[in-house]
Amino acid sequence: KQEVTQIPAALSVPEGENLVLNCSFTDSAIYNLQWFRQDPGKGLTSLLLIQSSQREQTSGRLNASLDKSSGRSTLYIAASQPGDSATYLCAAHSRASRESGANSKLTFGKGITLSVRP
Amino acid sequence: DTGVSQNPRHKITKRGQNVTFRCDPISEHNRLYWYRQTLGQGPEFLTYFQNEAQLEKSRLLSDRFSAERPKGSFSTLEIQRTEQGDSAMYLCASRPGGGTYEQYFGPGTRLTVT
Questions:
Q1: Is the pLDDT confidence value at A102 over 70?
Q2: Nearest beta carbon to residue A46 from set B45, B56, B102
Q3: Tens digit of pLDDT for each residue in A77-93?
Q4: Is there a contact between B41 and A31 if contact means CB atoms under 8 Å apart?
Q5: CA distance A110 to A107
């Protein structure tokens, strides 16, 4: 059974800092790993998706890495801004169950709530 | 806007009432997922459709919950005899077959059971 952990649950940094958000997962048999942003009371915005065969993906100030063998992914945010304040969730895309064949699902961590202070 | 829409966006209901939510996926996506997110938690998988076939159901989906995707396009999620513990954000996602497996999420329906 896939389990995804994100620690710490909350993080507060001053504006301009570079920061790393960590994600770990227990089952390395994943199709991909996706990072999402969620603003309070809102839905999910996809930030980056890393295929299982890839090591990293970049979009603007964001860089996500994936190490399947150790069950870890990191999201690097460069030069953080107050507008980056949100909850960041990582999700591992893997088989829905042992019996499910090709059926798949996302398993989410609880998220890291980031606050960037001006 | 990902192209996945959900209605209603908010629903307040009294305990014991039935509620139904609708999800319209991106038109060419034949895979559709429902997730539930409670306060302070990440979304949890509820069920999965490929076209009109419901291929996977989580143990979280009690027999008060039913989901359908009658023509392989939009989907509905119904909760019968709602309980306060059903209060949550219900999220729908869709993706095309094959490819990157990337799921595209709708804005969610927030259910409050009083």
A1: no
A2: B102
A3: 999 999 999 999 999 99
A4: no
A5: 10
